[in-house]
Amino acid sequence: MAVLIQVRDAHKRFGDQVLLDGAEVSLVDDVKVGFIGRNGAGKSTFLRAILGDEELERGEVTHHPSLRIGYLRQHDPFKEGESALDFLMRESGQPDWKCGEVAGQFELKGDYLEGPVKALSGGWQTRVKLAGLLLNDPNLLMLDEPTNFLDLRTQILLEHFLKSFNKAALIISHDRAFLKATCSHTLELSRGKLTMFSGPIDRFLEHREERREHDRRVNATVIAKQKQLQRFIDKNRANASTASQARSKSKQLERLQTTEVEVDEPTVHIRAPLVPNPRQGTVMRCEELAIGYPGHTVADQISLEIEHGQRAAIVGDNGQGKTTLLRTLVDSLSPIEGHIKWGHGTELGTYAQHVYTSLDERRTVLEHLEYESNADTTRQDCLNMAGALLFRDSHINKKVKVLSGGERARLCMAGLLLGTANVLVLDEPGNHLDVETVEALAEALLEYKGTVIFTSHDRHFMSRVATNIIEVRDGTVKNYFGDYDSYLQSVESEIDQGERDRASGNQTSSSGPPPKGKTQNYRENQRESRKAEKELKNLEKKIARLDDEKKSINDQLMTETDPKKAVELHEELTKLGEELEAAEERWLELSDFS
Questions:
Q1: Where do the record's region annotations for Disordered lie (predicted)?
Q2: Domains 282-497 and 518-593 belong to one CATH topology
């Protein structure tokens, strides 16, 4: 087991912030390591130091002579007009057949391989970059937040790639599900120190908490013993006959020391907007809606209802229209056709890029939070929320105009959560948050009494928060009948089938857009499904009405004394029973269909 990279006594600071304080670690040639730590802890700085792009103040980084690093670049490495195949050949120096073979592992073929690479969505461009990494035969992959902005399908493909990659990897990610699936070891950077744990992230977090709890219990015992010894010393040191015992106990007391309990940065707690009077019924309805842009329809014939209190997750591949749908729902984009109706008393709170890039730049962080918060919010509430989203100490007096994009996003989130919205529309709320803060946000949304409509690429977050799933796919939007975990399984199955087809030489399966005929059939099926879904809802209402009428007539029949009237009621009851039976049979047929 060769040591590819050895870091010894690494020191680095920015101003008064200590990032590395004597940090040490060894990365070996066959281990995949998940790299975690709070935002601002210095993870990306550490990666740059390993790459040689950042100088340490003190310490050394030693590379093995055979080290070949593959680094997933966040910037755009593509030339204007070149295809993915052109880029792969230029990047690797490999022939076209070899580049095509490796690209196939990421389902890159046809127009995706030979068309302009800059025309591809961010997720597909990431697939091209990953194929380029693999063609260069690295023995250490370094990935910095690789799942940011990747759709579910590309995340799963990346997972499969990493599982089959039999060399080393160092991966920074806030996505617990991704780290758990890909990494056998966990590296934590906290307070300038690096801690390597030989286990996945879940086991590491459990171990860390168990260790802290053990230290707390030991400390409690030590403190109790210290108090007992101190009482004995105070009572006996002035007495000649017991002074020697007091001196002995004093030496014991000196040897008793508590263990410093290792704690992370302050625990994050986030509160959601307070909704004093939660509503019931339908909060949003759209009929025959078409969404998109002038000259380009993204999806049409959309009929949806969302109920008060639901946490509806919008899912689908990148480029299918998730963000377009959200923007249309909040009226930052006009519908092409149809209309959207929000329930009475709805107050929308929106978190999306078009919102947090337009904050008032004249305000400070604290001024923005005080302006956005509801009337009952205290200054301390604002300070607590600011701290939870990493605006602490002097940072609360920063002007919005000097904040980075990530800081503006967190500030927008903080202001939204301090407000009074009873419907939250959130587009990728976890992208600028670390693991602990994403977890705290999930907890807050679970306690929230309002409605949430959101998108996210974080599977752990989606699985915890979502109560129902809305899928955007191939020009349609519909309710998915199942929870997020079942949706995840269906996507996994599609990818597995594609990989089996590729292995057997059958290239017909692809996660890209289906052929035109298949797309038409799919849309027709989706329209039929939507019709069935609508009929199903109407039937449920009809069955409930008929059942109530049947009970009412039964009650009348039990007390009716007029024989003629009783016969009429009996005939009416028989007719209702037949109608109810037919409705129930149709309901069962449609339930099987959907």
A1: 237-259, 494-535, 545-564
A2: no
